[in-house]
Amino acid sequence: MNVLNRALPFLAAALLLSPYYFFYFTSFDQGNADSPIAVTVFKFIALAVCVIAMFPMSIDRTASYAKLLLASFFAWAVVAFIFKGIFNGFSEFYFINTVLCAIPFLLMRPKQGAITQFLSSCAIVLAAQVAIDSWISYSGNSLWDNGAFVGGVGNPSSFGFLCNLLIAYVVFYRKGRFVFLVPVLAYGSVMSSSMLSVAMLAAVLLGALLIRLTVKKLIALLFLPVIAAVAAPSAITDHVAYKLASIAPSDDMESRSISVSGRLDIHAEYANRFSEEPFQALFYGFEHYIGIDSQVLTYISSFGLLISAFFFIAVSIGMASAFKGKGELNRFVAVALLLFAVSFLSNRLLDYFPVAFFLFAVLSMLRPERRAIKLQILTGDLRRTVS
Prior knowledge:
Blueprint (H helix, E strand, L loop, with lengths): L1 H15 L11 E2 L2 E2 L3 H18 L7 E2 L1 H24 L6 H13 L6 H25 L17 H19 L7 H10 L3 H17 L3 H17 L1 H13 L14 H17 L1 H6 L11 H9 L1 H20 L3 H19 L8 H10 L6 E6 L4 E6 L1
Antiparallel strand pairs: 1-2, 3-4, 4-5
Helix pairs in contact: 1-2, 1-5, 3-14, 4-16, 5-6, 5-7, 6-7, 6-8, 6-15, 7-9, 13-14, 14-15
């Protein structure tokens, strides 16, 4: 049984981080693909294994304020998503990825220690995927034209973000032998060809150095520039140069959605639309679920500012609780949620499976509030108790 308990989190991590390897066997062009039904089935299998590995088979009858806010957001958002789709047509279905990842955490509370076992397994799996992508890139079979590393998550920004998240987990909380995975994960972050990922990587490593410098950390960090310089100098230089150049205004609509200037233009465009249609922007959003390179704009445009505020306030509550708390666990959660918050401004990573699962996993690591809300499901009674 002990072997099974150790193996299940690793299997869950391996499955959750691997669905988009199917893209290597389909037509794929710069993020556009005809997703085979196998990918969808694989996602459900991965989530089912995660539930078996990490959750007790019982409904959690207590809820923090953050969880209640999240439940309220998703209840309204799912209804709005379905009705808008029925009456106006579905523009896309990425939001379903977020909903699927949220359901287990809204209904159940993870087993004690399950999240840390899962994240430790994810660090190993993602490091292995960096090695696999190195071979794929060397053989000239990368999914993306710029050779960006994507692992089994299919999206460069998602892959780079998860590398940074797990680096933060290792250097702020897990430590031990796992610190030697940091150079590999850092290389994966850089090779994701995402400028935000590179900036986040620098911030995480600098933060770790400022908080506590140990010999092992120093050795691991000293290897980073050596590995980066030897393994991929031209790729890193070319892509960073491209991203820096994209800050300048551009009329090239083809690259608009992926350039820095394009994202700034999109924010300005939707700010104007919000001012022109304030009632819609405030209460229920616009006609479709609108995927924009910003989680904030995506949710406000799709569901309205008021209901979207439930989601972002819930994340803010978790972040504030972690920053106020003491110890290495709270330190990691605070850093992780800060990384998510920054990404919300420039990307919609939660729409890309399985990034949202990691957000809810991190939030669930916070210790229960001293004053929780107990839900009496059978009687319908709602009362405040001290846990």
